[in-house]
Write a structure and sequence with these properties.
CATH class of one domain: Alpha Beta
CATH architecture of one domain: 2-Layer Sandwich
Number of helices: 5
Order of helices and strands: HEEEHEHHEHEE
Length: 211
């Protein structure tokens, strides 16, 4: 049995923990936009310790819907766990600026998601959201890609999902150190792929087809 002194200290510790800022790194993607989509959320405590990893395959939808789904999942987790001060980090400029009120929400697909996010945010004691470049959101990006891989049935021999390309990239274009061949042709100095597309920043090596 806890003494009054001990139980009081535990209550104080719980109250202090609930009032600490936690950070949710959020990301969502769609392979095809619209296409197979998923989100990932990595949540850490005030000292950088991992609190939770969330990910879900969403079926066929858009990048923006997946990004909002990640935010909603982070908000749901925080409210369920009694965490009242939430900082969200995302690499979607559209999402961040819409939640900040700097961009209007004109899409009929995003409007209900935006309104639900605002309702959940209102239940917190404190909330902030900030934009980062994709390279600083790798934990959430990994979880989003794992969700898409699971939903698309892409498994390694060991049963774990393979690291995948960013949304819109062809399967095998990223996710390992081995180069993956893609078929296409060059016309007027421009590379045209026969299927799929390459994400921004992807470097390619062009070799002639000798068949």
């Amino acid at each position: 049995m806890f003494s009054e002194k001990t139980s009081g200290r535990l209550f104080a510790d719980e109250k202090r923990a609930a009032g600490d800022w936690i950070t949710a790194f959020c990301d969502g993607g769609s392979r095809g936009n619209p296409g197979p989509a998923g989100y990932g959320v990595f949540i850490e405590g005030p000292d950088g310790e991992k609190l939770a990893e969330l990910s879900e395959f969403l079926g066929k939808t858009t990048n923006n819907v997946a990004e909002y789904s990640a935010l909603l999942a982070a908000l749901e987790w925080a409210l369920k766990e009694g965490r009242s001060r939430l900082r969200v980090v995302a690499d979607s400029e559209l999402l961040v600026k819409q939640i900040q009120g700097r961009y209007k929400v004109n899409s009929p697909d995003l409007r209900p998601l935006y309104e639900e996010a605002k309702r959940r945010i209102a239940k917190l004691d404190a909330f902030r959201i900030e934009h980062v470049l994709r390279g600083k959101n790798q934990k959430a990006d990994r979880l989003a890609n794992l969700a898409m891989d699971r939903g698309m049935g892409r498994k390694t021999a060991g049963g774990d999902a393979k690291p995948a390309a960013r949304p819109g990239a062809p399967a095998g274009a990223k996710g390992g150190n081995q180069p993956q061949p893609l078929k296409g042709y060059v016309k007027g100095g421009v590379v045209h792929l026969l299927e799929g597309e390459l994400p921004d920043g992807m470097f390619v090596k062009i070799t002639p087809d000798r068949q």
